[in-house]
Amino acid sequence: MSNYTTANKFIVAEGEGGQLYLFIEAKKNHPDEPRIIYDGHDHAIFLRSPEEKIILDYIHPEVRDQLRKARRVVMVETILENIKESYYAEMQMVEKIPVDWSKIGLKTWEEVALKK
After folding, report:
1. Residues paired with residue 24 on neighbouring β-strands, in sequence order
2. Neighbours of 16 (CB within 10 A)
3. What is the pLDDT of residues 9-42, one digit of tens each?
4. Sign (positive/negative) of CA torsion 91, 47, 99, 8?
5. Which tens digit of pLDDT belongs to each residue from 67-87?
6. Other C-beta atoms within 10 Å of 12: how many?
7. I want to staple 101 with a disulfide (CB 3.0 to 4.6 A). Which of 36, 40, 46, 106 is the partner?
């Protein structure tokens, strides 16, 4: 998992037409064939490019079903409150992401919510 980073903050929002938008902090390079691997649970992996893998951790239970059903989302990269760029990322649904999240210090949404 050393070649993975974790998104410090991200927001999932739904547009008027039902399109999902995922806001993240802007990165330096332009993405290359971006896609999101998701199994419908607490975490997803955003493959921004073959070399850049970002863990989207603690996906809120209220948006999981929408993400599961989405074929693609609009990724919006921001610098402070300004949009740097936006693009589509295809959703790739899998049965289970083969990662033991606890080994990299990630817990479930419920475990984190209970500590607040």
Report:
1. 10, 77
2. 5
3. 899 999 988 899 999 999 989 999 999 999 999 9
4. negative
5. 999 999 999 999 999 999 999
6. 18
7. 106
